[in-house]
Amino acid sequence: MNRLQTIDVALDEMLVNLAAIVLRLSKPELTRTPEARRALAQSVHQYAICAKRSDDPRVHELKSQLEETLKPSLRVVARNGEKVS
Questions:
Q1: Which residues contact 82 (CB under 8 A, 6 or more apart)?
Q2: Triad 68, 74, 75: Cα angle to 5°
Q3: I want to staple 69 with a disulfide (CB 3.0 to 4.6 A). Which of 16, 26, 74, 76 is the partner?
Q4: Helices and strands of the chain, counted as H and E runs
Q5: Strand, helix or coil at 31?
Q6: 10 exposed, middle or buried (CB, 10 Å; 0-12, 13-18, 19+)?
Q7: pTM for this one?
Q8: Is the pLDDT of residue 82 over 80?
Q9: Helix/strand/coil for 61
């Protein structure tokens, strides 16, 4: 493995570890405030920029998972005791 490949693999590992950290921080109980949501969105955006150049499928899968955390969660609404979509 040449030197550039070694660096590339190390960067991919760093991206995988970074994604794991951001995923842990994306939990709803940690992102209740608008500032926390903006910080999460910025982290996901910056991760996506870095992940774009990676050839590691794990990095791209984690990018997709991170982007999903930005989508609003749906909730069940009930009217007169019955679930309403």
A1: none
A2: 150
A3: 26
A4: 3, 2
A5: coil
A6: exposed
A7: 0.78
A8: no
A9: helix
Distance CA(60)–CA(49), nearest Å, equals 11
Q: Which residue(s) pair with 78 in the sheet?
A: 83
Q: What is the pLDDT of residue 62?
A: 97
| Domain ranges across the chain | 3-84
Element (H, E) at 78: strand 77-79
Q: What does the mean pLDDT of the chain come to?
A: 90
Write out the two tokens for 65: 């998972």
Q: What is the pLDDT of residue 57?
A: 96
Q: Which residue has the tokens 């005791």?
A: 81
Residues 6+ apart with CB under 8 A from 38: none
Question: Do the Cβ atoms of 48 and 67 come closer than 8 Å?
Answer: yes
Beta bridge partners of 77: 84
pLDDT at 37: 94
